Amino acid sequence: MVVVSVPAEVTVILLDIEGTTTPIAFVKDVLFPYIKENVKEYLQTHWEEEECQQDVSLLRKQAEEDAHLDGAVPIPVASGSDLQQMIQAVVDNVYWQMSHDRKTTALKQLQGHMWKAAFMAGRMKAEFFADVVPAVRRWREAGMKVYIYSSGSVEAQKLLFGHSTEGDILELIDGHFDTKIGHKVESESYRKIADSIGCSTNNILFLTDVTVEASAAEEADVHVAVVVRPGNAGLTDDEKTYYNLITSFSELYLPST
Ligand SMILES: CSCCC(=O)C(=O)COP(=O)(O)O
Ligand SMILES: [Mg+2]
């Protein structure tokens, strides 16, 4: 087993979800199909509710920003549009965004609200790789803080950690960040996260499967390790040479343990 030493200055471990704590297959084969199968009915049932209207407004704003993109689906303004046509436009927009695996705050907010009912009713349980929960417990016993930074909304993150095959493990997480703080491929986001936690960027170790995210974090002076899991996208030879790679959280060595 290759061991990656965690620098002594690290006091915070920041975790990505998809491809890092959780198999991409769970997201692609369980979470996303649920949205595609249920989005139309969800919009029809919840349309009049404030939360749903806020989600639609955010999606419409995103659609306006996306208007220049190939195949983008516009969402008409409420007045003067037939309700069923409007709902269909939102459905088409969601399908289009998902077909490109967009990580927009608007899409992620709606998805989080939709997953709520399924998780709360016990119809869906989040999966974590077997090494994740034991490692997080060890890190916390060693005095580390553990935070999440995912494109999935904070609300969705809490659903996953609160309703997992390992039970409710939400208490193991000190805090959550999503794209409201900034996108994961922008280094400024990592500076803002450090500010929000109240530490320096070099006190953070970020674990992710995506090298553009690792590169943005590193530019902000955050320590990074790239997580290689079954089903993740492959890495180039240069990326394999450049980054510290781990295939399990148990490969991280904390000097204090
Ligand atoms: C609460 S995460 C649900 C999965 C998801 O929607 C997503 O976009 C995960 O992205 P990540 O940044 O964790 O790779
Ligand atoms: Mg990821």
UniProtKB/TrEMBL annotation:
Monomer. Belongs to the HAD-like hydrolase superfamily. MasA/MtnC family. Bifunctional enzyme that catalyzes the enolization of 2,3-diketo-5-methylthiopentyl-1-phosphate (DK-MTP-1-P) into the intermediate 2-hydroxy-3-keto-5-methylthiopentenyl-1-phosphate (HK-MTPenyl-1-P), which is then dephosphorylated to form the acireductone 1,2-dihydroxy-3-keto-5-methylthiopentene (DHK-MTPene). PANTHER family: ENOLASE-PHOSPHATASE E1 (PTHR20371:SF1). InterPro entries: Enolase-ppase_E1 (IPR023943), ENOPH1_eukaryotes (IPR027511), HAD-like_sf (IPR036412), HAD-SF_hydro_IA (IPR006439), HAD_sf (IPR023214). The gene is Enoph1. It is found in: Cytoplasm; Nucleus. Its EC number is 3.1.3.77. Transmembrane segments: none annotated. Binds 1 Mg(2+) ion per subunit. One of its GO terms (cellular component) is cytoplasm. Its main location: cytoplasm. It catalyses: 5-methylsulfanyl-2,3-dioxopentyl phosphate + H2O = 1,2-dihydroxy-5-(methylsulfanyl)pent-1-en-3-one + phosphate. The keyword Cytoplasm applies. It comes from Mus caroli. Keywords: Amino-acid biosynthesis, Cytoplasm, Hydrolase, Magnesium, Metal-binding, Methionine biosynthesis, Nucleus. Pathway: Amino-acid biosynthesis; L-methionine biosynthesis via salvage pathway; L-methionine from S-methyl-5-thio-alpha-D-ribose 1-phosphate: step 3/6; Amino-acid biosynthesis; L-methionine biosynthesis via salvage pathway; L-methionine from S-methyl-5-thio-alpha-D-ribose 1-phosphate: step 4/6. This is Enolase-phosphatase E1. GO terms for molecular function: acireductone synthase activity; magnesium ion binding. One of its GO terms (biological process) is L-methionine salvage from methylthioadenosine. Substrate binds at S150, S151, K184. Its cofactor is Mg(2+). Signal peptide: none annotated.
